[in-house]
Structure formats: C-alpha cells, structure tokens
Amino acid sequence: MPKVSQISTVILRLRYSSSRRLSNGGFNFVARSYCTSDPPKTSGPLTSYSKLVEQGRLQHDPYQEKVASAFENLFGRLENFEKEMEDYHVRLAEWEKKREEERRRLMVEEAEKKEEEGMWASMNKHGQKLLGRWVLGRRQMNVEPGVGKWVSYLNRERKLDSIVGSRPVIPQAPKGLYIYGNVGCGKTMLMDMFYGSTDGMIRQRQRFHFHEAMLKINEQMHKYWKENGEEKSTQYRISSWIMNLPVDEKVKEWLAGEEFYKQQLQMKHILPAVADKFLVDQKSSKKGASILCFDEIQTVDVFAIVALSGIMSRLLTTGTVLVATSNRAPRELNQDGMQKEIFDKFISKLEKHCEIISIGSEVDYRRVAAKNSVENVHYLWPLNNAVLEEFEKMWRQVTDQYGGEITSATLPVMFGRTVDVPESCNGVARFTFEYLCGRPVGAADYIAVAKNYHTIFISEIPAMSMEIRDKARRFITLVDELYNHHCCLVSSAETPIDELFQGTAEGTLFDLESFQFETETEDSRLRRDVLAEGSISATGSPSSIVKMLSGEEEMFAFARAASRLIEMQTPLYLEGVRFLHPYFHQPK
User: Fold this and answer.
1) How far apart are CA 498 and CA 512, in angstroms?
2) Contacts of 252 (CB under 8 A, 6+ apart)
3) Per the database entry, which stretches of residues form a coiled coil (predicted)?
4) 99, exposed or middle or buried, with CB in 10 Å at 0-12, 13-18, 19+?
5) Which domain holds residue 253?
C-alpha cells in the first residue's frame, strides 16, 4: 500500500491557483495531450507521436504509426481548407442576406397585388383586431390554407433562385478518419493528438465523448424548441419587420400568415437546425472550417441512431471534417438492425466522407504504461482500517495545501437541475461511492463534477456485481467522464482494479441508464418528437437493446473502465492534469 507522502507528491503538483469560478452548464472540452513540462505546442500528429516514442514515453506500434500518418496527411490539408471555408462563409452570408431581402420584397409585392385584385374585399372592419390576435400568437385564419400555401411558398422559392442565384458551392472537405480497434490500443490518444494540433488553426472545432454529445444534442434541441416554438418568440419575429411596414393592415395580416407558415416548416426539420449550431463558436465573429472529434461513437438505441444520423449527415454535407473512434467498424455498429434504412444511409455517407482505419493491435497500452510506472499511488485497497486512515490523511493534506477551507457547493447541470457537492476546496472534491452512484443520477451530473474539479476523492468503492448492477452502470459512466476531462482520481476500493467488475456470468451490468437525459419529461418529449420527425416507432426497442447489450457490448464497457482506471494512475496521465483539465483554463 502506498504512503501518503507518495500520493500527496503526485497530487500537489496539480496546484495552480486557489481561486476559480465554477463553470456553467456548457460543454467545453480540453483535449488530452501527451506532454510533461510545457503547455502543448502546435505540431503535426505524426511529429508528436514520433517525439513521444523517441523519449520513451510511448512504445512504438506500427498500427499506431499508420494512424498517426493518416492524421498527419489530414492535418496538412486543413490550413488551406480553413482559408477556402472562410471565403465560402463570406459569400454565403452575402447570399443569405440578399435572399432574405428579396424574399421580403416578393412577399410585400404579392400581398399588395392581392389587395389590388380585391382578394380581401370581403374582409370587414375588424381587420385590425385580427392582426392583433396574430401578434398575440393565437391561431388565425389561413388566407391560402393547405396545398395553396405550400404551392405559394415553393413558387416564391423558385423566384428567389432565379433572382439571387443558387447557394454558393461549398469547398470539398478533406476526408476525415474513423478509427476503430480494441480497448487501450491508442484510438483516443491519437485522436487527441490530432485535435491538439489544430488549436489555433481551426476556429470551429469540438471534441465530444458519446455521453457528452448526446447531452449536447438534447440541450440544443430543447433550446431550439424554446426559442422557436414559444408564442413570445413568434410575436417578436412578426413584429420585428412586418408591424412597421408602411402598408395596409390587411397586407400585414397576410404577411404574418406567410411568415408563420415558414416558421412551421422550419420546426419540422429540427435536426438540421441543431446541427447548424452544433459546432458554432459564439465568441468568434469569423467562420471557417469545422472539425468534430467524436470519441466512442455508439448506436445504443433508436433515438441515438436517428439523432446522430440526422446531425452527422448534415455536418458532413456542409463541410465538417469528422474524426471518430469506436470499438467497432462502421457496419458493425448496429448489429441488432435497429432502424436499418436510416442507419445504412448514415453509414454510407460516413464511408464517403471518412477514411476507415483499423488499429489491429491487441495490446492494451494503458496496462503496459502502468507496469512501467511506479507503484499505484492513488487507488487504495482493500477497505481496511489502514487504507481508510491513509485516505483521510491524504484528503486533509491536500485540502490544507489548497487553502484548508472545506465548503459545500452546488453545480448547474441541465434544465435548471443542480448537483450538490458535499465537500470541496479550490478544485478538489470528495464523495462516497454511494453518493455518486447509489442515486438516480447520470452523465450530465458526472460531467458537471468532472469539469469543475481537477482532483476527486471517492471512498468505499465496492466490488461490482449483479446485486448492485445499477450502481455499476453509473460507475462506468462516471469513470468515462473523469477520464474524458482528465481528472485526477483518488479512491479507496474493496478490490484491485482487475477484480472490480464482476458478475457478468450472472447477467449484464451495462444498460442505457447512463444515456438518459436527466429529466423524464424532457427525455420523453424530445425523444418522441425526434422519432416522430423520422416517422419512426420505438415500439419493441427495449428488448432489442437488451439483446444487443447482453454480451460483447458490456464487456467493452467493463474493459474500457478498468483500462482507464489503470491509465489514470500513470505519471504521464497525472502530469497532464494541470495543463488539460478545464479547471485550469477558467478565468480567475
């Protein structure tokens, strides 16, 4: 068992600043980089990989080198692509502005023409009141109901095409990469090397793990519905340009009806709308190329297939460069055949826009690195008095070093939800296993904790079994998020890591709970609306999911969690915490 002096030496290296603000509920990720003494510097992925091999920090692997070379080729094409996309977005903005101006002009001309032809001669003196009801967002009469309004809309769009011209042609994007292979073979490491190399080169870029991406999609869908579906929002858009027009009130009413019909059409295509804002950097006034790095891509249920298919397809079509990792080849992601037609279209598009590469190595390099490192210094076991005493000593020493004042905190999650932190001190937090995994919480809660605390103490972790299968599922998700945010984990556990996940012979431990969207009302409504958009029925999907996750899938989850727990104890991982954890990138 390690001594507290060994442990505190590792942890106290992380000290950076004792004054930090808790972040909000956004999803900002700092990509993992494999460096030790200096902040990451921009260099090609292959160069970074080769240097780490030369320094003895990585063991050379021909499969990894092949993938690093593929990333290097992609990296070399991005600078020119960024310039092409900057020019494209300038032309696109000009085209969109001109088209909107012409659209409004055409609508006013149409309305005035209808007025001259006496179309509204039958309207009585209460026209002003009718318009007032439009402004209040109430349902009004349709001047051209049904097919007529749709035909009118299409004719107007055709006129706009002839007046303004077609949409600017988007530059051809470099092919992205889809990397798949076994646990610990280096997929995430290589992707993060690539992501780090694009810092300062590409403005619109994001890196998500599956859990975080699904929560981001859910958040954006909720925001879109709130902004576009509420009566107050509709009132604002109508009044902003129609109400002040110097035209007859009857004309304004017709224009309001046409505008509202356009908004209704847009609401039927929510996934493309969400995709268009998925990678947007709100702080940047200039748009260019976009990159999406997606770790551990999965298709765990019908909602995931539909949402990911709609959003990814849109992003690929509009020039986003996709880099993804997975345990499976693309065609093997949906082994149970859920929504096969939608899935096949998505995979065909993915194969068109991405180079598919397998890392064929059977070696779990996280374990190799751990064997070459010093004794495990912050995974303490078993749960005896000596371990508990060491755990308490370590907590006191670390919190004293960071200021000594231990307080509670409340973190924002989603949809107004919060998660309480019982004990914390300037970036360090403490929990029991039961508190984090014994309650109905999910990925959003763990992301909030992982983002705000660089060092997390978790005590009394039991051996996992079917008797506590729900807790085991949550713990796997918790480990994923602590690893994804590059947290330092200090824990006391009942067993060694390799004996922690038990009970698979009795049944599965892994299910979809970790992918829930945290509020039953929001979850069911958003899932229902998205499935309805795709004319999809979720009937029968639970049994299909159980079948899909009854064997190999949960074994991947167990192996990944154990592998990550091992890597999180290595010096290479720990030395990166102070550079890579979001806490150290927040304003003072």
Assistant:
1) 24
2) 131, 242, 243, 245
3) 78-119
4) middle
5) 45-87+170-359
Rounded Cα distance between 13 and 577, Å, is: 9
Please tell me the distance from the alpha carbon of residue 433 to that of residue 75, in angstroms, as a whole number.
Answer: 42
pLDDT at 182: 85
Token readout for 305 is 């297939």
Sheet-wide strand order for 290-295: 204-209, 290-295, 321-326, 176-181, 354-359
Which of 314, 329, 359 is the C-terminal boundary of a domain? Answer: 359
* pLDDT above 70 (res 539): no
Round to whole Å and give the CA distance between 370 and 281: 38
Please check the confidence at residue 523 and state whether its pLDDT lies above 50: no
Question: What confidence tier does 3 reach under pLDDT thresholds 50, 70, 90?
Answer: very low
CB 252 within 8 A of CB 131: yes
> Which has more confidence, 113 or 346?
346
Place of tokens 């090397």: 193
Q: Are residues 211 and 279 in the same domain?
A: yes
Q: Is the pLDDT of residue 386 over 70?
A: yes
Average of pLDDT values for 166-181? 95
Alpha-carbon span 32 to 187, nearest angstrom = 12
pLDDT at 373: 60
What does the pLDDT read at residue 64?
94
Contacts (Cβ under 8 Å, ≥6 apart) of 135:
235, 238, 239, 243, 256
Share of the chain above pLDDT 70, in %: 71
**Under 8 Å between Cβ of 447 and 479:** no
Global pTM reads: 0.71
Distance from C-alpha of 37 to C-alpha of 56, rounded to nearest angstrom? 15
Tell me if 217 is assigned to some domain: yes
* Dihedral sign of CA atoms 308, 310, 311, 315 in order: positive
Integer Cα distance of 86 and 383 in angstroms: 58
CATH number (domain holding residue 184): 3.40.50.300
End position of a domain, from candidates 344, 359, 374: 359
3-class state of residue 359 by DSSP: strand
The verdict on 461 and 550 lying in the same domain is yes
Averaged pLDDT score across all residues of the chain = 77
Q: Is 490 a domain residue?
A: yes
Distance CA(98)–CA(84), nearest Å, equals 21
Domain CATH code at residue 463: 3.40.50
3-state secondary structure of 236: helix
